[in-house]
Structure formats: C-alpha cells, structure tokens
Amino acid sequence: MDDAPLNLWQRRRALHMCRWSVLLFLALIAPLSPASRGEATELVVDRSDIVKALAPVRFLPEHAQRSARIDLDVAFSLGSAVLTLRAKDQLDELAAALSRPELAEARFVLAGHTDARGAEGLNLRLSQARAQAVRRYLIEIHGLAADRVAAEGYGESRLKRPLDPNAADNRRVEVIAFPHRPVPKSTRRAITE
Prior knowledge:
The model is unreliable at 30-41, 180-184 and 187-193 (pLDDT under 50). Helix 2 (47-54) packs across helix 3 (85-98). Helix content is 40%, strand content 13%. The protein is elongated. By secondary structure, it is of the alpha+beta class. The termini are far apart.
C-alpha cells in the first residue's frame, strides 16, 4: 500500500518532465523554421515552370501581351546578401532552365527587391548586392555567359505585397527576360560589372 502514492508521484514527475522536454524541443526547433526567421516558405520553382514563364513569344504566343518574367523566392537572411542553401537550390533550377534551347538566345535582368524594414538607401544597396550575388552564382557556378544577365536593385520601391511591406514575400529576385533584344540601356552598366 505504501508503493501506490510513490507510483503516482513518479507518474506525475514523468509527465512533468515529458512536458518540459517537448517545450524545450519546440524552443530549439522553432527558430530553425523559415517562417520564424521571416523567410517565405514557398517551395523551389522547378525548371519547367521557369521556362514556361520566361520563354519567348515564338515558343509561347501568350507572352506577346506581356513581358516574360517570374518572381523567384531566392532566400536571404534578413539584412544579408549571402545565398542560403534553399536559395542555391532555386538558382540551380534557374540555371537549368536558362540553359534550355527555348531560352538560349534570351538575355535577363535579375531584379533584386527588399521588404520595407530598414532605411531606404540601405535597402536599395542591399537589393543590388542580392541581385549581384545571384548573377555571380549563375556565372561562376553554372557558367552562364556574363553578357546574358544584368543585375538591378530596386530596394523597397516595388513591393510584391504593398499592404504588408515587411512581409518576407517582398524579399525576392525577379527574373525578367529580354529575348532577341539588347538589354535595356539602364542595365548595360550592370552587365559589365
């Protein structure tokens, strides 16, 4: 009969320890999730979807009414131009798409964007650095010809979600195709950098 209260006490202690273990586990894992770091949680866009979005008019006539472009979730840490592993996965898909015959003659502008956190001038420089990091990765790692891509930074001036200016979706790189035409004058400077 003396063992019964002890067993009850032991069960309560075990339950209490279990609860604390779960809370500790969640506290350690939660900071690792993209959403908790303010990153977008979208999946990597695959190369076939990129080709469909950027293909010239002769391959996709519906592009005659609009410029071919795609927003890619190229993940950067807050305030950084260092590519994350997820960003590199996305850029590997982009490089594979850009090497396809449908896009072989096209030139592209990599437009870097930020959210509205921080000073406007800092965001402009950061978006330019991010676009340059993407360009550098495509050229150095995947051998993309340097004259096919230009990098431009727009800072917070072209928010994807203007009603939520601090949203992670606003931190992105937009790929804009300029098929069979020279890259616009405003971006030629960036090509030679």
